[in-house]
Design brief:
It is a single chain. The protein is an alpha/beta fold and 362 residues long. The protein folds into 3 domains: 165 residues, no CATH class; 41 residues, no CATH class; 103 residues, Glutaredoxin (3-Layer(aba) Sandwich), CATH 3.40.30.10. A 5-stranded mixed β-sheet has the order 6-5-4-7-8, with helices on both faces.
């Protein structure tokens, strides 16, 4: 029984660590959500390093438990990790301030109640291991165990480094290669969206009175002093579309989203979160891409939230504005090229994928 528990706990931690190591920026952004909810935005600059370390810890701890190496120390580590994870999932479940905890990244979305139950079960299993570490027999000798641990650390580190430069190996986002953006904007089948009512706030006889558009007071007249109006949630929806807030706007304020997505021709979008890395990509391949796109009559657009800097650096390329959060979701590497045909993502590549990018315009 103890061996079975070791394998269950170990494999779950390895899977959880690797699926997030595939997209360390995703975990970093999720950490930022928690810090914002706790009014601790000053920690944002450290979330990527924390995500990097957390993923390595999960994988290494999972491997160590399976091979049975240094069980007492790793049992303590697992216990600390699962108590921390259970705190986070309970916060997501009971506070309602965060939509999901991202325990298995974007590839295995779980509801708050599912993640909470999963962590409670894991906590119980880890407690069994914690109090029975002396009964655990190593699978291998000390040297081989150390080699396996080191290899797992190297592999997890390399996977994260690759994802940060070339995009995740497994893209589970709604903007992945082959995805239809129009389809991603629709509610899942059978889901119900949030329902809101416009609520008005008026003042009469020094009393604040609120009512919606269907329930105006019978005596409503000029004696009511307008104060405010807002949308009030009257029914919580059962799900959200995979893609929300995706909008492309020209510099003169025209929303061109539908015009582009309904156009069945090939075009290229370069998503630029910011220009902090411009020295790495604004020379070389970008120039070749622009020349090739012009030669083949392929429209090319810069998509960014940093319009001022974009205008300073690009004077002859159309610039489209987009929400910064949307760009962070769509393009994990800054910047990322999208080869589009209407509303379908034909291909998606990091700026660092030189040879693959040039194949687009050959």
């Amino acid at each position: 029984m103890l061996t079975i528990i070791r394998w269950i706990v170990g494999l779950l931690f390895i899977f959880s660590g690797l699926i997030k190591a595939n997209d360390p920026l995703g975990l970093s952004y999720k950490m930022q959500e928690f810090f914002e909810a706790w009014q601790l935005k000053g920690f944002h600059n450290y979330t990527l390093a924390a995500a990097y370390a957390m993923n390595i810890l999960e994988v290494v701890a999972g491997v160590a438990v399976i091979v049975g190496w240094q069980m007492k120390r790793f049992a303590w580590l697992l216990l600390i990790l699962i108590i921390f994870f259970t705190f986070l999932t309970s916060y997501v479940l009971f506070s309602g301030k965060i939509h999901a905890c991202g325990c298995f990244g974007d590839c295995v979305p779980l509801t708050p109640i599912q993640t909470f139950i999963k962590d409670i079960v894991l906590l119980l299993l880890i407690l069994i291991l914690f109090f029975n570490t002396k009964k655990v027999k190593p699978l291998f000798n000390k040297k081989l165990s150390v080699v396996i641990i080191i290899l797992s650390l190297i592999f997890t580190t390399a996977l994260q480094s690759y994802a940060l430069k070339y995009l995740p190996v497994l893209d589970c986002l709604p903007y992945a290669k082959g995805k239809n953006l129009h389809e991603g904007m629709k509610l899942p089948e059978g889901a119900v969206s949030d329902s809101f009512a416009i609520t008005f706030k008026y003042k009469k006889n020094n009393q604040v009175i609120e009512f919606d558009q269907n329930n105006f007071p019978d005596d409503f007249d000029d004696s009511y002093e307008y104060m405010d109006r807002y949308d009030k949630l009257i029914r919580k929806g059962t799900a959200l579309p995979a893609i929300t807030d995706f909008s492309l706007t020209t510099l003169n304020g025209t929303d061109t989203t539908e015009a582009l997505l309904n156009n069945k021709e090939i075009y290229i979008l370069l998503f630029v979160k910011d220009f902090s890395t411009k020295n790495k990509w604004m020379n070389g391949t970008l120039g070749l891409m622009l020349d090739g796109a012009k030669r083949k009559n392929i429209p090319f657009y810069i998509v960014t939230a940093d319009v001022v800097t974009a205008q300073q650096n690009f004077t002859s390329i159309p610039i489209l504005t987009c929400d910064a959060t949307v760009i962070k979701t769509a393009a994990r590497v800054n910047p990322t090229y999208f080869l589009m045909k209407g509303d379908v993502v034909i291909d998606k590549l990091s700026y660092a994928s030189d040879n693959k990018l040039l194949n687009w315009i050959k």
